[in-house]
Amino acid sequence: MNQTQSPKKTTLxxxxxxxxxNLDLSFYPKNVRRxxxxxxxxxxxxxxxxxxxFPLHSYDKGTSLSAKQWNWSQIGRSLQKQSLHLLKExxxxxxxxxxxxxxxxxxxxxxxxxxxxxxxxxxxxSDFTDQQYQELLPALARSTxxxxxxxxxxxxxxxxxxDICTNQKxxxxxxxxxxxxxxxxxxxxxxxxxxxxNRSQLSANNLAPxxxxxxxxxxxxxxxxxxxxxxxxxxxxxTVSFKEIKVxxxxxxxxxxxxx
Length: 260
Prior knowledge:
The chain is an alpha+beta fold.
């Protein structure tokens, strides 16, 4: 295969890319998520190793949901004959173009057919959401709750299983995960969300013991009381001085008549 056909950027490991290039496929998957979704390329890969079990003339090159379901059902039956198994979550995610699903599936196929182990296959999460992509975006550009549901619940996924309760549960899981991440962001970046401290936090700050540098002096003065306070900040090293205040006591007049 011509080396120039390989994509400029791919999320597949380098050894997997080279392996695909040497299989002489009908076309090179420039968009991994899209090009593997209908299953035809997967059938081509297995045909290279098991030509009798994966006859290519029985597979559809179309991109409709019915074509995808037909191809993957054929692949499933052929895999059973060879006692081979693929991760169901990865297959479903690939059919519905979920984030990272096709990459995990291709690496799994590579491990099965070449007996070479890739650590990344075992370490990748199987939820196949766009969370990793969202974390790369600036905070203001990340998805809202409704956008998160739209991004992670494909229309073909709803069409494949049109049950309302099933899709409602999927949407609830996506929404709950989105809100959990938002809550984590508020904790990590309270300033950006203008989060104000609650009463318990304010009380804890007010009840904090004074530093050792705090001093209080009371001294009497003729005709009044003088109070002087000085406080040294342990954190900044600055000294805060308070102005002296003199309080004059009023003269008390005797209520007893001096003449008596």
